[in-house]
Amino acid sequence: MKRVAIIILNWNGRELMEKFLPSVIAHSPDELADVIVADNGSADDSLAMLNSKFPSVKQLVLDRNYGFAEGYNRAIAQVDHEFVVLLNSDVEVTPGWLIAPLAMLDADQEVAAIQPKILAWHHKGSFEYAGAAGGYMDYLGYPYCRGRIFDVIEPDRGQYNTIKDILWASGACLFIRTQVYKENGGLDRGFFAHQEEIDMCWRLRSRGYRIQCVPQSTVYHVGGGTLNTESPRKTFLNFRNNLLMLYKNLAPERLNSVMFARFFLDYLAALKFLLTGNTENALAVFKARIAFHQMRKSYRAARIENLSKRKTAIIPELLNESLLKIFYLGNRKTYTEL
């Protein structure tokens, strides 16, 4: 049995796989890792292309599109490797990319998940939005990274080349212990896509595990391969899932105050969309809040479970301030300035 299953979730992504699979195959030693494509009910000829051009790649064929979260859950349920790497189909890996993360997982059993340094494929000297050099979050639920706060993306000058504990590892390239993934519920299928890895990592962190960025490993991510940044669907999922995540994971003494603040901040975001002529995204925010309230009752059991299994109430990687205040009023735009 090889130690690592590198699982690429695919949905109609033939062109991306043709472009990026060669780097994964070339830089993932066959004696160490299986490269596996889990197909999420694609309607294109992805599988035929794999059979023709990449016969060494294993396939797990799902009967329909289960989304990012449940698609990975179903794929990982079928593997018994010690470690799993969740890898987006639009990621170019580099020589030795597996070595440092696996060494860290071997060295410290408390570390459950790791991400490499994630740079932008189109601008390889800059960090990539979805993960950069490791993810954090403020107490109101706004995620940010070493190397990216809101839309301010830093060039990579080696300023974040230290191994560091983080709150969440990016789902674009996420190393995780298979047993830990399975025992702790994996990704939340109700999220479908977006912020499900933040929710899972927060859950693991609360249960006493650690999450790290190991920047001695580097990958390049295209980003926006499925839904572009202006997609109303992406706006809906991000706002809805962020609220669900907060409800599931926030301590009781903070829940009401945070949800009260988010009521105003979310509608302020919708107003900004309206004022900039982006009516569909404004409507998506309204729909997201409605969907959250419709789903909230069904998440009561998940919240109770999370709180009952919590081993630490204080998580250093959760910023105990408002990122909005720091960014806009304090004019601090980078992780270092925080």
Can you walk through the features of this model?
The chain is α/β, with parallel strands linked by helices. It is built from 11 helices and 14 strands. The strands form 3 sheets. Strands 1, 2, 3, 4, 5, 6, 11, 12 and 13 form a 9-stranded mixed beta sheet that branches. A 3-stranded mixed beta sheet has the order 8-7-14, with no helix packed on it. α7 (232-249) runs antiparallel to α8 (252-275), α7 runs parallel beside α9 and α8 runs antiparallel to α9 (279-296). The longest helix has 24 residues, at 252-275. It is globular and about 55 Å long. 44% of the residues are buried. The mean pLDDT is 96.
- How large a portion of the residues is in β-strands, by DSSP E? 15-25%
Q: Based on helices, strands and strand pairing, what is the structural class? A: alpha/beta
Q: Which ranges are low-confidence, i.e. pLDDT below 50, for 5 or more consecutive residues? A: none
What is the arithmetic mean of pLDDT? 96
Radius of gyration, rounded? 19 Å
Total number of β-strand segments? Answer: 14
Instruction: Give me the strand/helix succession.
Output: EHEHEHEEHEEEEEEEHHEHHHHEH
